[in-house]
Design a protein that fits this description.
The protein has helices spanning about 25-35, 40-45; strands at about 1-5, 20, 55-60, 65, 80-85. It is of the alpha+beta class. The protein has one domain: Roll (Ubiquitin-like (UB roll)), CATH 3.10.20. Strand 3 and strand 4 form a beta hairpin.
């Protein structure tokens, strides 16, 4: 099973879990499995037309999927997926 690491702000939607385990062959399948287990996450991760939100970054074993095969990136059983929301702002 692959593990999906949930960022602290989203843990309230997954029963306060830091990780969720899923069986999946690709990142897209893993994210689908996550949403099926925790449907309240959908609006935080995806747009209404089903695309990953621009501020949501996914990493497989510390590699940004944008530089791999995006959501079609293949997974091995021991892979870790990290959901990393972009952070903007700050003080000058």
């Amino acid at each position: 099973m692959s593990k999906i690491h949930i960022p602290t702000p989203l843990r309230q939607y997954v029963g306060k879990q830091a990780t969720v385990e899923v069986n999946a062959a690709t990142v897209a399948e893993a994210m689908d499995a996550l949403i099926k287990q925790h449907p309240e996450l959908r609006r935080h991760l995806y747009t209404e037309d089903g695309k990953l939100r621009a501020f949501v970054n996914l990493y497989v074993n510390d590699e940004d999927i944008r530089y791999l095969q995006k959501e079609e990136t293949a997974l091995k059983e021991s892979d870790n997926i990290s959901i990393v929301p972009s952070i903007a702002g700050g003080a000058r």
